Amino acid sequence: MSEQTEHHHRENVQQALAEIQHLLARHRLVEGLVHRQAMPRHELVETLVHKQHVAELARRLDAMHAADIAFVLEALPLDDRLFVWDLVKAERDGEILLEVSDPVRESLIESMEPKELVAAAEQLDADELADLAPDLPRGVMEDVFRLLGAEEREQLRAAMSYPEDAVGALMDFDLVTVREDVSLEVVLRYLRRFDELPDHTDQVYVVDRQEHLRGVLPLARLLVADPEARVADVMLSNPLTLTAEDRADEASRWFERYDLVSAAVVDAKGRLVGRVTVDSVLDFVREQQEAERLAQAGLREEEDIFAGVLDSVKNRWAWLAINLVTATLASRVIGLFEGSIERLVALAALMPIVAGIGGNSGNQTITMIVRAIALGQVRTDAARKLYRKEIAVATVNGVVWGGLLGILAWGLYGSVSLGLVMTVAMLLNLLLAAIVGVAIPMTLSRLGRDPAVGSSVMITAVTDSGGFFIFLGLATLFLIK
Amino acid sequence: MSEQTEHHHRENVQQALAEIQHLLARHRLVEGLVHRQAMPRHELVETLVHKQHVAELARRLDAMHAADIAFVLEALPLDDRLFVWDLVKAERDGEILLEVSDPVRESLIESMEPKELVAAAEQLDADELADLAPDLPRGVMEDVFRLLGAEEREQLRAAMSYPEDAVGALMDFDLVTVREDVSLEVVLRYLRRFDELPDHTDQVYVVDRQEHLRGVLPLARLLVADPEARVADVMLSNPLTLTAEDRADEASRWFERYDLVSAAVVDAKGRLVGRVTVDSVLDFVREQQEAERLAQAGLREEEDIFAGVLDSVKNRWAWLAINLVTATLASRVIGLFEGSIERLVALAALMPIVAGIGGNSGNQTITMIVRAIALGQVRTDAARKLYRKEIAVATVNGVVWGGLLGILAWGLYGSVSLGLVMTVAMLLNLLLAAIVGVAIPMTLSRLGRDPAVGSSVMITAVTDSGGFFIFLGLATLFLIK
Questions:
Q1: Is the CB of A345 less than 8 angstroms away from the CB of B342?
Q2: Is A447 among the domain residues?
Q3: ipTM exceeding 0.95?
Q4: Range of the domain at A276
């Protein structure tokens, strides 16, 4: 599906988008004229100039790579997007649907007839179909299933049975296999019988009659070795293998670490069931990155930038609701000390500093720990070491920044004791941030949860409420008589 | 350097780390006994049991992939790390130094003699050397330079002349080139003369006598096409090419979009100068992701988790200082309204909610816009559309969440007018967050800066100070008589 075609250059995409937008604008202009003169719509279709624009647009799209068309569709507002989508040749629908982002895919699928969707799905391999399946209407998938051959149906079932973060979801079935007892000459002749090799074939898989993986034969070895040699003598007999149940992010680390282009996927009995290629891994790493970035800002999914206002509100509301709850809690902590604030109003101005710096410092700790956990460098017995270090860092920061703020408070309000309370409160809140900043991700990780998700909200909630409580509490004890 | 070796499996790394830690612990135990009995240190070296452990450790390391040794070194505290590093065979030093993280690399280089460093550097290709060069002492680099051949020296100079985020920094020089007027049979014979092909050779490059790139010949095509055919008839004559000045993140998008394994790098005259392979791209994407994650928490660089406290404090202080300034500004805004707070102390408890929710909402907007900019979907003329949408979303959120908070304030403090002020202040601060949330990344991007860096601090500064000002200002106008 995704072979490197001859007709794309690197500047094309932005330029193509601009050209297409220009053609669309001219098209809209004609349509606008027609509309204002109350010309019936079917006559518009007859307009020569309009026909020219549309034909030019279609030609332009034909020459483009599926991924580039996907880019253009994502960058267009809904009405232009559907207009362009109609101009794309039906036989390319499948590959383009695979390339577009989720919300744009939804908008395109909504605009299509079930018949068109079945036709588009038919063009795809089983592993690609599995990616598309969750977005297709039930009836369409049933029709597609009926049209598949027995082997493909089995592959589709297998591919759909894995969660998104498992190797099974990245796997494809485009395997070239050979036997170990033949000569390289035979392998070369066998390969020459293919019209083309599957994308990303950097190695062929060596299997026995029961499909057990015996080794892999990299094409680079095949090409330099003596053609008389036997496969068994040239192959790598102990290659890295994956299982469909392995976690995709671990597999992506192996691809990075060992610079792989493809890797075999085997079942529990060592039989070859599929392969993972580096392009899926790269896509996975990027998607993970995007998902994390969105999650950090509390966005549930990527937003089509031309999506309606209500879709955006829905996407964003959960995070705001959670923050409303934590902010309200912090507000109630302040409420406990209203009497003290009434008597020493400087407290109101100074308290957000204590809470804010604590939150920042806690987020730094969390980022370090989450990273160390992700890299597999933190084991449970390292916990004490990490606590000790973060507490030491917090103590230094607390003395330095707390001291500075104490002097600031003293300068602003002329009270040494207020300055001292400020310093001690900063120190204590930074210590709280350090301890909780290690504890939250370690606990999440021990519970089998992703330590990156939600850590930041939690630490901010703790350092806000905690910071207000510590500062106002100390002030009440020592400053308010 | 990074070929797929036969002697690694996927479970090895964590297990190897555990085994090595176990061997180290036993080694320390012997050392401890020796120490307590005040045995002279040179006798320890003679101890049989000690020798066994060390030999076992060295054997274990010999069998490991360079990337795995790098992982182990990163996961060990400094003294253990240097002990293990001494046991690694000198001829592997270069490739391992390439694999470890920056702070760990520094710690290893500090422990090495100039002579050892020169020897390690000599083992590397020019492009790898360029990656290592910034961390090597000046004298060492001068020695290495002297030892290089003329061509390699030129390549090293070229590779070092590009900034880290340019394609030139990802490029290597392991090119296999052929002429277009020969038959595939000739190419196959030519390749067979290599001992091995460079890693990630998925295609050979077709050049003329002046090194102008004429096309690329994928190995997959070479293997299936008729050996009698001419290269010119089988090659892709218009492949995607990069220049050394292209931005690495754009190149990584092209690798993703077109599923490339390698791409040619050409100069302004179309002459082939190098290539980029997908393994460098994958590393680049991951490093970018890490750098962004660290930058978001205000960490200047990755921290060796066993680094000293003062290194950590230095790494983190700039961010805390910036936040101290913005928090102090916000605090001064509150200071302006101390009189109002004294008369209506409820304001002190409610004001952090207004500021906090504004910050969260602004960060959501920024995340959306930064993402759209990174994907190239936002052009300047789309700005008005984005402002309109974000303002609409903010209005809905302001009415809903502001209304809710207004009711909360009314319930808590029994004042309808306080509730109304709360609602209006929330609405206004969310509108401020929306407008500034679009404006900041758009402006940074227009100034040629990375819109992801610093946006979050700025929006929080605006919504904090702005939120306090709006809420306390409205309260002073309408509630304080």
A1: yes
A2: yes
A3: no
A4: 177-296
